[in-house]
Amino acid sequence: MKPAAFDYLRPETTAEALAALAEAGEEARLLAGGQSLMAMLNLRLVQPALLIDIGGLAALGDLRRDGDALLVGASVTQAALEQRAGLADEVPLLALALPWIGHYQTRNRGTVCGSIAHADPSAELPLALAALGGEVMLRSARGRRRLAAADFFAGILTTARRPDEMIEAVRFPCRRPGEGYAFREMARRHGDFALCAVAAVASGRGLRLAVGGVADRPVARDWPLLEGGALADALNDFAWALGGGDDAHASARYRRSLVRKLGHAALEEARRRCG
Predict the structure, then answer these.
(1) Which residue range forms the structural domain that includes residue 156?
(2) Which of 108, 164, 212, 247 is geometrically suited to a Cys-Cys bond with 22, CB 3.0 to 4.6 A?
(3) Crossing angle of helices 252-274/228-241, nearest 10°?
(4) Which is it for strands 143-148 and 153-155: parallel, antiparallel or unpaired?
(5) Which of 173, 201, 219 is the endpoint of a domain?
């Protein structure tokens, strides 16, 4: 199937892109890597009047330390982030999660911020952002604002981004001393959508587990240093609270089992890594 007709704009500056976005509003879509958007266009799930291609804007290509976080600009590809020297030391959870995203070919085109903007509940990067408590940096012609990951993701393919805003960058908190990280995922095949994915953070202060692929958005939960039956009970409560349903790929019962099993394995691995 082919997309419905649309106008195409390749702006030369970020200001030009924002001006076009402000004028077109909900009739516009931003294109960076296009790995999610092009499929939706071809299926006519979205039919914008205007496509604004920001993939070539050098100003959106930042990939650098920003205080205690790693800042990733809107045009940075997943492959560029994966290949960043020292990523495993800076943000270990990202280094663990990135190889699970699609395939090398799609990571070579797909952007980090594009995945965040798409807000697929099964996607790895929104899950990592939620697990780390990262931020989304939004910009419009009116100004800038920041949203915590927990406030940005609003549901399936739905976010708190306003129609005239673009994601200028995202901030992933860097590794904190004494923390360990782990990432686990179950899918039919490598590169398929996750039936369930988990990201774990452990330290001497407590545990955090974020789950994707079950609820309508990535969800994180914090606990003290639980062990044994107390941890099993907490994981079981979390699995039920996520409220996943049956679909063509897996049953709700199976997903609850994955939350418990993958969650326990990831938390134990993260504990070992934090010493």
Answers:
(1) 63-173
(2) 164
(3) 140
(4) unpaired
(5) 173
